[in-house]
Every structure is written in structure tokens, then in C-alpha cells.
Amino acid sequence: METDILIQLVILLFTLGIFYTIYNFPKQALTRLRSKTRFTNQANSHFIKGAQFLSRAKSNRSKKTTSFNLAKLAAGEADKALSIDPKDPAAHILKALSLDLIGHKLSALRSLDSALSPPAVKSLSGGERADALLKRAELLVALNRKRRVDSALMDLLEAVKLNCSDRAKAFCLLGQCYEIKGLKIEAHNAFEEALKVEPDLVLAHKGLGRLR
């Protein structure tokens, strides 16, 4: 599920739905997180501003400088929210998405590590944790370091077990990880599972093509 839909729903809850187009983190996750945590109005305000900045950054992707600056502002607002409550997993995830857009994937990974570690992780439901694990695995794979593949595999297997929102992406990433490790049968099976969920998934078809 695309993160643009997720952040749109967050802002629907707080600002009558006037922003749109953030992607890569599943639908409603941050909305549920915000409803379950006790925040001051000031912390909520910083979170909302950050979500709005990130939405605008995504909608201005064709204008690289504008998008970069807006994403940077979003990360700053996430930091302000975290300065008020460092245990907030939603703010950690918002920061991770912002840093990822800027291109700071390693820093984004650290933010997701914080969201998925105690005490923040205690606020996550099984499904929310699954979606965060999927995003973290995506970053691990994007960093393109073989030593991170095992960590990505663990996250993906747990995400699938917990029934993450975007199972097609999860299985496709599993296939890529198995492929990197030279486990062709497992990779083939993972790509096939991805296509069962989303038959037109290009990356899965390409993965199967590489294994032939």
C-alpha cells in the first residue's frame, strides 16, 4: 500500500484531507499510531506540519530542489515532535520517510530502528510492526550491502508472518534477497508468490527472468 495514501489519511484526520501523494508506507498506519499515543497539542502540530511538508515534497518530485527542501522541513518537524516525546513511533516513521526522500537512507534506517525498538515498538500493533519491518527491509536492500541481506530477510519473513499490507512487495524483496544469497529455488518461489498477489508486478517478472 502506497504511503501517499497513508499520509493523506493522517491529514484527513487532522486537517480535513487537503494534502496528498506520499508513498511507500502502508495505508492508515500513522493514523492509527497517532490515535493510540498521548501527545500534547504542540507535538501533534509538529507531526501534522511534517506530514504536510512531506506530502508537498512528494507532489513536487519534478522540482528536485523544492522537493528536497520540503522533505528536509518534514524531517525537522519530526525531530521537534520527537523532542517532546521520543517514544512516538509515528514521528520516527515520519522522519524515516523524509530522510529516505532526501536520499539519507542510512539515517532513515536508524529512524526505523528506533520505531521498531523498545519502548516505541510497544505502541505498534502486529500489522503496523509488519509494515514498518517491510519498509526497513526495503531500505536495507536499497543500501545494497550483502551483509545487510540477512537482516532484510529476517524483517521480510516476520512482515509476511504478521500479514503486512503490501505482500506483493514483501515477496518480491524476499526473492531479491534470496537471489543475492544464491538461493535460486527460494528466490523463484518468492517471486511466484509475489505474482500470485499482483500478477503484473514487473520486478517479480524480471526476477523470474533472471533465474531462467
Count of structural domains: 2
Percent of residues in helices: over 70%
Based on CA atoms alone, the radius of gyration comes out at: 17 Å
Shape: globular
Number of separate helices = 11
Q: What order do the helices and strands follow?
A: HHHHHHHHHHH
Sheet bearing the most strands, described? Answer: none
Instruction: List unreliable stretches of 5+ residues.
Output: 9-24
| Strands, count | 0
Mean pLDDT: 85
N-C termini distance: 29 Å
Strand content: under 5%
Helix/strand/pairing class, anyone?
Answer: mainly alpha
InterPro entries: TPR-like_helical_dom_sf (IPR011990), TPR_rpt (IPR019734), TTC36 (IPR038906)
Transmembrane segments: 6-26
Keywords: Membrane, TPR repeat, Transmembrane, Transmembrane helix
Family: Belongs to the TTC36 family.
Describe the protein.
- This protein has 212 residues and is mainly alpha-helical.
- The chain has 2 domains: 1-124, no CATH class; 147-212, Alpha Horseshoe (Serine Threonine Protein Phosphatase 5, Tetratricopeptide repeat).
- 73% of the residues lie in helices and 0% in strands.
- Helix 2 runs antiparallel to helix 5 (89-102), helix 4 runs antiparallel to helix 5 and helix 7 (126-142) crosses helix 9 (167-180).
- The longest helix has 21 residues, at 64-84.
- The protein is globular, with a radius of gyration of 17 Å.
- It starts with a helix and ends with a helix.
- The relative contact order is 0.09.
